[in-house]
Fold:
Amino acid sequence: MQSLVITVVGPDRPGVVRTLSDTAAAFGANWTDSVMANFAGQFAGIVHLQASTDHSAALQAALRALDSDALHVQVTLASAAAATTGQRQMALELVGHDRPGIIHSIATRLAEHGVSIDKMKTHIASGAMSGEQMFHLEAQLTIPQDLDTDQLQAGLEGLANELMVDLSFVGSSGAGQTATAG
Structure:
């Protein structure tokens, strides 16, 4: 089996996902994971397919043939999944008043600790009580086994105070921690 990662971007319209799934099905590929959304009228998606080695090259060519002015398609043959030995998973959630720089600050602090962001979802919504714009972030992280979680927690709590946001995370042990701006 070979893993393919496909990215697609184009004006949102009915049938984009069907076109991709028709092509995958025609070559017997397994659709294993995807993230898709409409952003400002543009459809954007990332799809992970697994295809037999015998059909992989033909599938890649068929997917690349979908590329046009109306839909930009990129296909990447993914290397084998990296071993997670020596790494732990953590979920991170953040809520705070929307302002520029939140993602930059979080990404910088995590990178300083060697933490990888596996998946991240963000959105802005009106606050329930105040009606003010609130920024929401949910992320799945991979942290090195040898990282002192107390050090990471202190760094994240300090950042939560600097950004004036509520930040919570759950480590692989299942224990939850919350840092709230004072």
Notes: The two ends are 51 Å apart (CA to CA).
